[in-house]
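re: ur question from the group chat, yeah i did fold both. here u go
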Amino acid sequence: MEREIVVYPNQVLKTRAEEVKEFNGELKNLVNDMFETMYKRGGVGLAANQVGVLRRVVVIDVNAGTEKQGKEKIVLVNPEIVKLEGEIVKEEGCLSLPGLYKKVKRAAYAKVKAQNLEGEEFEIEGEGLLARAFQHEIDHLNGIVFIDRLSPLQRRLALEKYRKLKREYERKMAAKK
């Protein structure tokens, strides 16, 4: 089931998500809903708080929107970044800040420790877009949105642009109802 995306400046995006302690059908349903929502909205990653659920759950598919979509789905429950290396500046966007794209400095490589849907621990590593997705989505779980990574001036300019984009987005959403 597609869920509503929470948009900035909703307070849930500034709130640290809580650790998942129960690995059950409810968690699996949440993950399925998150993938469906992410695919329908054109994202490559989604954190649970972006659909209003304050739990430490992330879904990622860097092949979203391609013929490989769904073949390399990643689910991270209670993820933690354990290693970052290198540096790269690339444009980033966010489903919770629709239409806004800004260059953000991130590590080029990331290693993450997490649990799967059964609660088993594992480690996963990635470079490029996957490393960026790990960092971006785990930031969400910690109450950080990508514009928080910008300089104060860049952030102010981005927020001015976003306010205009948000008004346009709200008009479109109202027209759909």
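okk and heres the other one u asked abt
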Amino acid sequence: MTPTIEEYVALLLVKNAQFHKIYVNEPKPMTFKKKLVRLTDMIDAWAEKQIKKKNETICIPWSSLRDLVLNHPDMLKRVNLFALAIYGLIIFPKVLGHIEVAVVDFFERSKQGINHVPTILAETFRSLNNCRKVGKGRFIGCAQLLNVWILSHFWKVGKGR
């Protein structure tokens, strides 16, 4: 038993996604530094200083985004940066306490109406399969979303539906 795309669409309340445009990571995306500069309206030097490498993953610490969320002069940027942090820390928490480059790309494309549900579902399958193969491990994906799906599924089954 695993979630389906339709179930995740319903649970995520996806309304603005263009379902014929599925999220795919671009083969030659813009550099992480350029994406950070564009997202934050900060200068290159600031972005370069924030970028770290953790477990072979390029990322930015949550604390750097937190400071911008609290102090950025543009309220829309604050909201966008907070949303990015949620994507990075909750939906795809690969490096704890950090937001990785892949999440920034995913977040930007989601704002453009690209359908991100298959990607979230694939990440769920990948992580669950990895835990099963190893026989242990930490689920890397949106545990909260998977929990809501499990509860909604078993609630229906328990009610005889």
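fwiw on the second one: The chain has eight helices and five strands. Strands lie at 18-22, 52-54, 57-61, 98-100, 114-115. idk if thats what u expected
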